[in-house]
């Protein structure tokens, strides 16, 4: 086992479960992680009745041995194993050959990684970026393939890319992301283990400028607690990173630059005695800088006792690697504390830097992000327009307004129907043609007006807009329905009222002209008294402008409820003729049309409007039409 001894530390402290198995499938040794994950010891694993293998991979071990003899490596083989309590665990197995001093294969190293959290069902990704449009930090949401779904205003400000330029692109390829303090695999493992990862990244702006950001990545989950993507909250720490380097390289620059930063910087020895602090740290402790020198960091600054295992400064000294922790204090503040080990020219750890920053605003934002999903769901569910999501014509979501439009009480009832069957027969051919055109180019927005006869036998006039959306590499259709029934019916009634009023006015005009003609005839031919009497009776019977006005007024009140009560409530001194004049203006009659109704010249109507503006207390420059249309 000479070769194994060389990697004893890696074997014992590896975060993966490792079993060393000889070529006869006999377990020689396991590490502590293996025991923690599965609960078996070596003797139990070699028992013929051990339930660890589950019988899934019978005969596969010999295939692995054969491949290893050919120097081939088996990586990420996914299967299941049972722990000592009977719980089945999804694992990924990587197999590596082990050779003795004579370069002969004597055993296999089997690395088991728990991938239970990775085997999840894809679900619809919820949208929520609009909540934090004005947050200064960048908020980025991605799906499980790291394709950008939402890109906040803060992200636009930080990276110079607009949202429409980046949605659907791979976030790390776009920003050319690299990890500062650990590998991508270590970061992924930490995210899988804890559900959250915080660290520093090196990235590029659109202009090509290099920046450093501190990123906090958390899972984005649906209502069933299934992972459907991730949320990253990124803060520009370029100046902090540069300050770290300046602190190491130049005492002079450390003093002149770091003293004025808005984060605490403390240089300590390995025993955590303070050697130097910037002015911000002194202000935090409410002491002079000279008073802090020589004191223990936790005693002077009042953050966290370095005797505790969670102290990132203590861990940085112990591990020799940068460490970061977010600490919550009783006063409601969140602080991010980072420990950075400093080595001398002989590569010996000599000092440690503590960098601490108040991140309360950022943490509150993270909490709001998690709360936003429920707010977004409520917003969509109670939207004033119908919203539905379909996949290959199968309905998978419909909000309350959508159910109301189609006349159903439950989603299940609507989902069982063929919605095309509700389309009005006169509109069916047109709608089908437009839909076929859209299918040839589905990436474009599709808008169509049509009528339906819903489940309650009501006719609805709809404007439908269909947009193709992509979620987790799957294509869905988002449909928005605007119910224009009330507006269209109002326009139809208004048109009928206008036509009726016009006919009445034309009738009265003809009667007036006929009366003038009769007067001329009477003066020339001396028509008998009897004929004059009959004409007057006919004239009174058909020439009834007051009655016609009452019909128009009644129809107008039906379309514009409370118009007259509001108008007369504000201007009680208006006469009937003035109210009538205002009514025709509200109906968008021209000056000539109104003059003909009142049997006067257009100039008289213009003069009447000047008097009307004064009576309504309007200025000369005020628009009378706009004022009337506001009622």
Describe the protein.
With 631 residues, the chain is α+β, with helices and mostly antiparallel strands. Helices cover 43% and strands 26% of the residues. It has 27 helices and 21 strands. The strands form four sheets. A six-stranded antiparallel beta sheet has the order 7-6-11-10-9-8. Helix 10 packs antiparallel against helix 11 and helix 25 (591-598) crosses helix 26 (602-615). The radius of gyration is 40 Å and the shape is elongated. The model is unreliable at 120-132 (pLDDT under 50).
Q: What can be said about this structure in brief?
A:
The protein is built from 27 helices and 21 strands. With 631 residues, the chain is an alpha+beta fold.
Cα separation of the termini: 94 Å
- What is the average per-residue confidence, as pLDDT, rounded to a whole number? 80
Radius of gyration: 40 Å
Strand count, sense and closure of the main sheet?
6 strands, antiparallel
Main sheet: strand order:
7-6-11-10-9-8
Q: What is the percentage of strand-forming residues?
A: 25-35%
Using the alpha-carbon principal axes, give the shape. Answer: elongated
Helix residue percentage: 40-55%
* Strand elements, count: 21
**Low-confidence parts, pLDDT < 50 over ≥5 residues?**
120-132
Number of helices: 27
Structural class: alpha+beta
List the main descriptive attributes of the protein structure presented here:
single chain; 631 residues; alpha+beta; six-stranded antiparallel β-sheet; five-stranded antiparallel β-sheet; 21 strands; 43% helix
């Amino acid at each position: 086992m000479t070769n194994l001894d060389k990697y004893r530390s890696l074997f014992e402290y590896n975060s993966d479960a490792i079993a060393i198995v000889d070529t006869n499938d006999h377990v020689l040794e396991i590490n502590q992680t293996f025991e923690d994950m599965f609960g078996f010891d070596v003797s139990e694993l070699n028992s013929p009745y051990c339930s660890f293998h589950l019988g899934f991979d019978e005969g596969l071990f010999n295939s692995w041995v054969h491949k290893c003899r050919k120097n081939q490596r088996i990586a990420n083989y996914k299967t299941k194993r049972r722990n000592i309590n009977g719980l089945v665990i999804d694992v990924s197995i990587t197999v590596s050959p082990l050779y003795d001093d004579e370069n002969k294969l004597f055993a296999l190293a089997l690395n088991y990684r728990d991938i239970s959290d990775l085997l999840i069902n894809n679900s619809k990704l919820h949208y929520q970026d609009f909540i934090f449009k004005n947050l200064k930090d960048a908020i980025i949401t991605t799906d499980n393939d790291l394709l950008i779904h939402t890109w906040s205003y803060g992200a636009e400000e930080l990276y110079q890319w607009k949202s429409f330029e980046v949605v659907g692109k791979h976030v790390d390829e776009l920003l050319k992301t690299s990890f500062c303090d650990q590998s991508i695999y270590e970061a992924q493992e930490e995210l899988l283990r804890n559900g959250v990862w915080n660290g520093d990244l090196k990235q590029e702006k659109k202009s090509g400028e290099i920046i450093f950001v501190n990123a906090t990545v958390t899972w984005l989950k649906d209502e069933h607690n299934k992972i459907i993507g991730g949320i990253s909250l990124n803060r520009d720490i370029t100046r902090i990173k540069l300050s770290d380097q300046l602190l190491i390289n130049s005492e002079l620059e450390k003093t002149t630059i770091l003293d004025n930063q808005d984060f605490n910087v403390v240089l300590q020895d390995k025993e955590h005695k303070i050697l130097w602090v910037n002015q911000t740290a002194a202000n935090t402790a409410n002491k002079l800088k000279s008073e802090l020198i020589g004191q223990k960091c936790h005693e002077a600054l009042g953050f966290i006792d370095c005797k505790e295992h969670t102290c990132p400064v203590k861990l940085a000294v112990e591990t020799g690697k940068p460490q970061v922790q977010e600490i919550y204090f009783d006063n409601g503040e969140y602080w991010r504390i980072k420990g950075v080990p400093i080595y001398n020219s002989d590569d010996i750890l000599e000092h440690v830097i503590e960098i601490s920053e108040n991140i309360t605003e950022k943490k509150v934002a993270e909490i709001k992000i998690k709360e936003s999903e429920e707010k977004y769901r409520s917003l969509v569910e109670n939207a004033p327009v119908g919203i539905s999501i379909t996949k290959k014509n199968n309905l998978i979501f419909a909000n309350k307004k959508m159910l109301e439009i189609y006349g159903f009480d439950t989603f299940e009832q609507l989902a069982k129907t063929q919605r095309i069957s509700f389309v009005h027969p006169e509109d069916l051919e047109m709608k089908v043609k437009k839909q076929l055109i859209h299918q040839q180019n589905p990436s474009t927005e599709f808008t169509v007006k049509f009528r339906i006869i819903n489940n309650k036998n009501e006719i609805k006039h709809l404007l439908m807009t269909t947009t193709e959306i992509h979620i987790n590499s799957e294509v869905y259709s988002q449909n928005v329905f605007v119910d224009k029934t009330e507006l269209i019916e109002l326009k139809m009634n208004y048109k009928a009222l206008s036509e009726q009023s016009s006919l009445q006015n034309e009738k009265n005009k003809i009667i007036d002209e006929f009366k003038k003609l009769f007067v001329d005839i009477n003066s020339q031919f001396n028509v008998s008294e009897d004929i004059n009497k009959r004409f007057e009776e006919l004239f009174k019977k058909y020439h009834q402008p007051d009655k016609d006005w009452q019909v128009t007024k009644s129809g107008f009140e039906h379309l514009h409820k409370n118009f007259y009560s509001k108008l007369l409530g504000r201007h009680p001194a208006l006469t009937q003729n003035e109210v009538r004049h205002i009514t025709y203006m509200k109906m968008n009659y021209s000056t000539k049309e109104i003059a003909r109704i009142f049997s006067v010249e257009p100039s008289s109507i213009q003069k009447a409007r000047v008097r009307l503006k004064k009576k309504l207390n309007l200025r000369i420059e005020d628009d009378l039409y706009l004022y009337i249309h506001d009622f």
